[in-house]
Amino acid sequence: MTFSHSTGTRGARKPGRVVRWFNGLALRRIRRRGGPVLGMRLLALTTVGRRSGAARTTPLAYFHGGPDRWYVVASANGAATNPAWYLNLAARPDEVEIVVDGETVPVRARELHGDERAQVWGRITTSSPQFAKYERATDRHIPVIELTRRDGDAPST
């Protein structure tokens, strides 16, 4: 199944200038040292802009899914619309890379659906309850994205 692109009719405000400022600080830290930022495990997700074709990098909380597998959530803090990085992934799911724990990893993105999403979502909301709050703030179905290392791509640093 593909990306759903669903939007809602209600939700929290999208993150503003303070969050963009924090994202810049978080990206520098992720690229320099990796590790948690303010207690959150973060990765740097680089997508290709669906309209511009330019590289776009966003820090995101992630959840381990096993070797060479990571999960990210397109919550936008519970906003009614999906974040821009999600739309970029939907347009070009095979043109993605992440920096995680100091390693640059080319990945493929896939949105989870049905029972598979429900199982992963349960693990995410158990370990990070704020995501359940985001879900309550909107009537949008919050996408869960699986990132897996692209076949044949060796680890790089």
From TrEMBL:
Tell me the domain of life. Bacteria
Q: Name one GO molecular function term.
A: coenzyme F420 binding
Give Gene Ontology CC terms. Answer: plasma membrane
Under catalytic activity, the entry for this protein gives: oxidized coenzyme F420-(gamma-L-Glu)(n) + a quinol + H(+) = reduced coenzyme F420-(gamma-L-Glu)(n) + a quinone
What the record says about family reads: Belongs to the F420H(2)-dependent quinone reductase family.
Which PANTHER family would you find in this protein's record?
F420H(2)-DEPENDENT QUINONE REDUCTASE RV1261C (PTHR39428)
| Name listed for the protein in its UniProt record | Nitroreductase family deazaflavin-dependent oxidoreductase
